[in-house]
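We modelled the chain as a single entity of 112 amino acids. Its sequence is:
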Amino acid sequence: MLRSNEFQFEQEIPWEDVGNGIQRQIYGYDDQIMLVKAKFEKGGVGSLHQHPHVQVTYVESGVFEMTIGDEKKIIRKGDGYYVPPNVIHGCVCLEAGMLVDVFSPHREDFLK
């Protein structure tokens, strides 16, 4: 079974630059679940995309214009959202911030 170490320490996890003003850190995961932190610069764009994974996200900081399907909302620190499988979604960062994503199953494409 694929899995991460039991403990993850922020200072030991490298930030990966994924472009468009976004960096990410991959935290704990196994075949069924994955936790990822995404740091956005102001103006950073999470391009519209879709994937077969369920996604639940918590806004740790910042302000984002989030699109899920046909809906667009402004979300801030303390807010969250749920994306069903294969639904188009994306965001624009209006104020620098951090999103904490949970995916099920894990994002195999993030581990390559």
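As a brief sanity check on the tokenised model: The chain has a mean pLDDT of 97. Residues 52 and 85 are 5 Å apart (CA to CA).
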